[in-house]
Amino acid sequence: MKLNLNTPVVENREQRLGTIIAWDGAASELSAESAYARGACGAGCGEKARRVCELQGPFTQGSVCSEQMVECQAGNVRDAVLIQHAPIGCGAGQVIYNSIYRNGLAMRKLPVENLRLICTNLQESDMVFGGVEKLEQSIRDAWERHRPKAIFIGTSCATGIIGDDVDSVASRLEEELAIPVIPLHCEGFRSKHWSTGFDATQHGIVRQIVRKNPQKQEDLVNVICLWGTDVFTPMLKELGLRVNYVVDLATVEELAQLSEAAATVGFCHTLASYLATALEQAFGVPEIKAPQPYGFAGTDAWIRELARVTGREAQAEAYIAKEHARVKPRLEELRQRLKGKKGYVATGSAYAHGLIAVLRELGVEVDGSLVFHHDPVYDSQDPRQDSLSHLVDHYGDVPHFSVSNRQQYQFYGLLQRVKPDFILIRHNGLAPLASRLGIPAAPLGDEHHALGYQGMLNLGETILEILARKKFHDDLAAHTQLPYKQAWLRQSDPFILARKRQAEAKGSYD
């Protein structure tokens, strides 16, 4: 599939990949439905290929929007400014992301500073008369205050409704200021899942920042990630490779040299898919088409493919052998201590596939998982990146594998199905509900915590730490109540509302 980099607006994930946000069944069933060679899924599911049948619920209790993902990516480029062309409410996340940004800088041992984000603060009158004058003034203010190397403009639902010509303003000011001024079309209603916001940021970077006439650096590897600790530098150093971390915490120059790298990798296909594919198609930078680096199987395959592409096979085999020998004794100890424990994973889709693999390396039982969306295919369309089938083929099935866009009202029933001893969670909003059921949670604020060989040990140690605090969660459960009626708490199917709606639409619900 060829990505269209000629338009300023990225194609959303529903159109491009067939992304869904509601499904319920076994992981093996979803993997079969999502097979890379399939056609349409049958009558009533649409004609577009790579479409998985999706449960359509009657409402959405809460989520995140694409604009927030632009805020946490473009807003985290260190010598750039992000302008949110939006009402001030859309800028509420700046407080949270400033804390994450500062923590990320500290973890990477970079100078700690605050974000440079500006909101145009659209008012009611702007919804009537337009907000382009405010946008132009905000761009000039960003230049005068910060002298950035680039200015990103994130659109919003409000600007999508009033139809402000953001592209023309950006083009005119880019010529005047002689720096990239990059419109990122990320209106919240543009896509039903926030991951399209990742693509919008990466689309703008490839179009307007990445160097068009690159001077290749044969030992440089692009690593597409978020804010996590620097675990890739020591890993890739074993192969004689250097790391170019993007997008979060990068500089504009580091983004510009994306086209000069020998290869591109990521910690999660959800995040890396668009940018890695765009770099390969537009600049010939090979994307490492391999499973994600989690557990022995995934990490071995990932390192070997990176070594093959960069011509470092001998170094890779020596590193793999050394790391296997190093981690296996402690891993066996962790397996003994975690024997009989049951875990549950609630994170983004491809990341969850990797975490479940690590839990099973640790000997932890995993009967259920919640992923916040599902991409039936990634942009490369290469079967080696089918992370769900890699999980099923190498680590076995997950009987209760659910797709739900962070719906609190469903989470109780999902946990009751499997009654785990603990949960792993990336987005912490669901963790308090688990705690009120007596289930401790490990919030993975450092997304690299479970990655690679050392990651298996890291995650095992973390699980032991949270299990040691089980008494606190038991006490919490004994003294709190959930805000749901008993009829709902007795309901065995968390997706009953969606199933009822679909049955009614077909005229068959009893």
Automatic annotation (TrEMBL):
InterPro entries: Nase/OxRdtase_comp1, NifE-like. This is Nitrogenase. It holds the Pfam family Oxidored_nitro. It comes from the Bacteria. Residues 74-466 form the Nitrogenase/oxidoreductase component domain. Signal peptide: none annotated. SUPFAM superfamilies: Helical backbone' metal receptor. One of its GO terms (molecular function) is oxidoreductase activity. Transmembrane segments: none annotated. It comes from Heliomicrobium gestii (Heliobacterium gestii).
